[in-house]
Amino acid sequence: MTGVLPDLVAAAAREHPGRTAVVDGERVVPYALLHAEASRMARLLVEAGVRPGDRVALYLPKSTEAVVAIHGVLAAGAAYVPLDPLAPPARTAVLLRDSGARCVVVTEFTASTVPVVPPLDTVVVCDGAGRGTGPVRWLGRADLDRCEPVAPAPRIGPDDLAYVLYTSGSTGVPKGVALSHGNALAFVRWAARTCELAPDDRVGGQAPLHFDLSVFDVFATASAAAALVLIPPRVGVFPMSVASLVERAGVTVWYSVPSALVMLRERGDLARRDLSRLRLVAFAGEVFPVPRLRQLMALLPHARFLNFYGPTETNVCTWHEVPHPLPPTTTSIPIGRAITGVSVFAVTDDGHLAAPGETGELHVRGPTVMRGYWNDPDRTGAALVPAPDGGGTCYRTGDLVRHEGDGRYTFLGRRDDQVKIRGNRVEPGEVEVVLHDHPAVADCAVLAVPDADGDLHLVAAVAAPGVDAAELTRHCAERLPRAAVPERFDVLPELPRTPTGKTDRAALRDRAAVALGTPDEEAPGAHRR
Amino acid sequence: MTVAQRIRAFLATTPGRAAALAALGDDDSLIDRGLLDSLGTLELSAWLQEEFGITVDEIDLTADNFESISAISWYVERRVTAVEDPGRRP
C-alpha cells in the first residue's frame, strides 16, 4: 500500500475544491479551505520544531478545529494523539507523558483544563490568543494566520507513525496503540470502496476522536471527497436532536457503536422522520443485540447494514453485510470475513487452526495491524506473535470466535475479562488497580453485570471500612475514563470467598444481578441454584 | 430553595460531579463540561417529573431546554405553569 494520509485532503482539495468537507452546525467548510487551514497548522507546527515522527496531542472536542488539527498534524509529518477533553486531567497527564508529545493543540475552552506536563513545550490555542513567552510557548490564532496556507512536504512514508490511540490496559497502565499511515489507509481505502463512498455522500458519525471509529469518519470521508457531518456535543447529548440533524443534514452514511443506534431508535422518533437518504448504516465496537437491530432495520427498509469488527490494534479487520430483511431464524450477527488484504484465523487451545464449527482465538495478519504499543515492547511482544502457519507476525485479539466455514466467523466472547460498556473497551483489572490505590480499600472486585435488557453495567464490590460509594466514585472519576467508572459500588465488610480462598466472583455477580433487577435466566450464576 | 438550587442539588447527587458543579455557574453549559450525557438527561427528566409534577416529553429534551441549570429551571417554570393552567402550553 502506497501513500500517506495527508494525500487524501490534498487530492480532494485539488479535484473538488468547492465540495463540502465538513458540516459543523451552521458552518460549512469546503475542501479548499480545509486544506488551506490544515496547511497553516502544519507550517506553524514545523516552525515550532515539530518533526516527522513527533507526536502532537489533540485536546479538543470533535469539531471543525479538531478536523483541521488532525490533517495539519499529519501534513507536518507528525502523528496525532487524540485525548478526551472530558477525561479526568490526572489521566490525561499520564497519557500525555507516555506519548512524549512536545506539542498539544487546544481550543480556548479546553486550554483551561489541559495538563501541561513534560516534555510539553508548545500549546497551540487554535481559536484564541497566544500568551507571551515562558518555558512553555502558547501560540494562538494570530500565529496560525501569519502562516502560508501551503502544505510543507515532510519526508514520510506508509510505515511512519500516523496516530496513537490510548486504550484501557488491564495492569492499570493505558496502552497506546500506534498505527501507521499504511495501517490507516489499508482500512480507509477498503471502507470507501465497500461503502461506495462518493462526493455526494454525507457521513455522520458520533464517535469521539480518541475512539478508532472516527478514523472512518475523518479519513474514509476525505478519501471520497464526501462531507463529514459533525455532531456537536450540544446535539449529541439529545437523541431527538441527533435524529433531527441526520434528517435535516441529509446524512447518507452513518457509522457508530450499536448503543448509539439503539438510543436513536428508542428516543429519536425515527418512524416519523424522512430518512430516505440514509443508504448505509455501519456499526462496530460491540455486539448488536438482534431484536434491537431488527427494530432499526424495519425503520430503514432501503438501507444497507454492515457489521464492522476489529480491535483498535487492527482497525477494522472483518466485516459482514447483514441481509435485509434479516431472516427470522437469525439469532446473532457474525463478524464475517476478512477485509481485502487482511487474513484472519482462529487458533484453538491446542494451537491448531480452527476447522469449521470449532472455536478459537481470532488472530489477524495484514496491512491494518498496528506497529505495536507505543513505548511498550513487552506488551507489543505479547500481542504481536508469530503466525501459527509460519507466515510473519499477527495480532492475538483475545476474542473467542467460532469458525462458521467459508472464512466467516462469529464472535463468542473474550479470553480475558475485558468488557464493552456502551461500546467503550474497559478492563475491570485496571479499575481494580485504581481502587486499590485508595488508602481505605482493603480488597475489591470489579464485574460487568447485565441488566434486564442485557446491557452491561460495571459494578465494584469493595471492602473498605468507613468509606461510602460517593467517595469511591469520586476517586475513580478522577482517574479513569467515564465508561470505566463503576456505576454501582457494593461496600462490604469483606469480600466473600470460595472454599479455596479466592474471591467468590459468582456470589458477587448474584448480588449485583439482584441489585440491577437482572432476570434469573440472565443472571450468570443462576444455573447454580 | 429556588428551582435552580433544587436542580443543582439533584445534579450534585451524581457522585464524582460535586466539585465540577461547584465551579459551574447557572448559565454555564453542563454539556461542554461533560456534566450531562444522554443517559443523564433521562435520569434528570425522570426526577423533574417526580419532583415538580410535570410531564417532560422526549421532544423537549434539547439543548435549548437542558444546556444549563438556568435553562432547565426556566423550562420547569414554564411546564409548572402549563400544569396549573392546562389551556396553555409553554
Description of the structure:
The complex is a heterodimer of chains A (529) and B (90). By secondary structure, chain A is of the alpha/beta class. In chain A, 28% of the residues lie in helices and 25% in strands. Chain A is built from 15 helices and 27 strands. In chain A, strands 2-1-11-10-12-13-14-15-16 form a 9-stranded mixed sheet, sandwiched between helices. The C terminus of chain A is likely disordered. By secondary structure, chain B is mainly alpha-helical. Chain B has one domain: Orthogonal Bundle (Non-ribosomal Peptide Synthetase Peptidyl Carrier Protein, Chain A). Chain B contains 5 helices and no strands. Chain B is globular, with a radius of gyration of 13 Å. The model of chain B has no long low-confidence stretch (mean pLDDT 88). The chains are: A alpha/beta (529), B mainly alpha (90). The interface between A and B is medium-sized, with 25 and 22 residues.
Q: Helical element count of chain B? A: 5
CATH top level label of chain B: Mainly Alpha
**Number of DSSP E strands of chain A:** 27
CATH superfamily of chain B: ACP-like
Structural class of chain B: mainly alpha
Rg estimate of chain A, integer Å: 23 Å
Shape of chain B: globular
Number of domains of chain B: 1
Oligomeric state of this protein = heterodimer
- Largest β-sheet summary of chain A: 9 strands, mixed
Strand content of chain A: 25-35%
Helix share, percent of chain A: 25-40%
